[in-house]
Amino acid sequence: MSMQTPETVPGEPVLPRPVHRVRRAAPALLAVMVALGVAVPIVASVVTFPVRSVLIGGEFARVSKAGVERAVAPLLGSGLFGIDVEALRRAALAAPGVREATVRRVWPDRVEIFVIERVAIARWASGGLIEVDGTHFLPAGGAGPADPLPLLTGPEGSHQRVLDLHVALERVLSPLGMTPVATELTARGVLYATLDHGPRLVMRPEAVAASAATYAKVLAKVLAGRLDEVERVDFRYPTGFAVRMRQGDAAAEAQS
After folding, report:
1. Which sequence spans correspond to the domains of the chain?
2. What CATH number belongs to 17-117?
3. Radius of gyration of the chain from its Cα atoms, rounded to whole angstroms
4. In whole angstroms, what separates CA 132 from the centre of its chain?
5. Residue 146 to residues 38, 100, 120, 127, 246: CA-CA distances in angstroms?
6. What is the DSSP letter of 207?
7. CB 239 within 8 A of CB 255
8. Cα dihedral: 72, 73, 79, 82 (round 10)
9. What is the C-alpha to C-alpha distance for residues 33 and 14, in angstroms, rounded to an integer?
10. Which residues are within 8 A (CB) of 82 and not within 5 positions of it... i.e. 6 or more apart?
11. Band of pLDDT at residue 22, cut at 50, 70 and 90
12. Do residues 236 and 203 touch, judged by C-beta distance below 8 A?
């Protein structure tokens, strides 16, 4: 007869109270039975409880369920009480695309593993995806989401920094009808942002919050309806910005 399992803390076994008592008393009971010459295998089978089923749950839009199964399979041969729950959790976390995992034992013979997927909001130019908290990870099977995501580029270890700059640019430019589809931070500290159907913006990272909004408003006003004709806009000037049109090499100056 199945039992309702109580609420548990991740990593703790879910066992009805009688089984807890059997587990605590098992060593002493085993010693007594050995001393009396009673057959030990009966008690041993109660203590070991072989795992007969493994339930792996969660949403598997971006995570391979088979990948999680392969990751945890080598750790399931020790019986219900012999399993290292924390090691099992770490193995599940190591599967591509898994952000969080919860493992619990369910008496008498089941292990339940629930996983939470990582959700990508951007691609990293050298490979992999970026989660909302700046975590860089590889998707299951090496493939990313079908929907297009912004492309981020930066020096090694700069995932969070570049993501923060991209989000700040989106906040500034989106109300003006400008959508950044690619953001790059160079090793020399120059920030590039490519707009959807528009120019490539050049600026100093520290000026994004202070000046980009003002310059973008002027840019939208001066070049209203012509942004698709602009190749590049350089915001690094102290009193304005330089505009390069797609046709011709002449640069036009606009004052803020």
Report:
1. 17-117, 120-255
2. 3.10.20.310
3. 29
4. 7
5. 64, 23, 11, 15, 31
6. G
7. yes
8. -40
9. 27
10. 48
11. very low
12. yes
Q: Quote the CA–CA distance of 178 and 196 in Å, as a whole number.
A: 7
Measuring CA to CA, which residue among 179, 174, 121, 177 is closest to residue 152?
A: 121
* pLDDT tens for each residue of 154-177: 999 999 999 999 999 998 888 878
Condensed to tens digits (0 to 9), the pLDDT of residues 44-80 reads 554 567 888 889 999 888 788 999 999 999 988 777 7
d(CA 58, CA 183): 33
The whole-angstrom separation of Cα 195 and Cα 219 is: 13
pTM for the full predicted model: 0.64
pLDDT score, position 141:
63
Q: At what angle do helices 41-48 and 17-36 cross, to 10 degrees?
A: 150
Domain 120-255 CATH class label: alpha beta
